[in-house]
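Protein record
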Amino acid sequence: MDNKKPHNNFFNYVFSQKPLIQDFIRELMPDIAAKINLESLEKDDTTYIDEKLKEFYSDIVYNCEQKGKHPIKITLLFEHKSTPPTYPHLQLLEYLMGVWNYNIENKEKLTPIIPIIFYH
């Protein structure tokens, strides 16, 4: 735990709890909840950010399956910020590219990703 970042510690703890993340998605993102199998949520401990950015960024990633005829892997990416980010799309692009480069290196299909940024 990093005593210099209590909000980040809290965020990481809360969003690392599967029942809490299921409730969060069910209550605050009902459109997404209707399209994914919340029981299939599984925390992904793979880090998709490179070492030089690790000090500045943290990520919590969950993988899950889509409901329906064609199950696919979906990644929900949660990022916490203390202030509104100036260029959130660029940071999210770095994450997306990190996941997709990992997919390519491991000869996997590209994973659909739902990025989510929180700030307080």
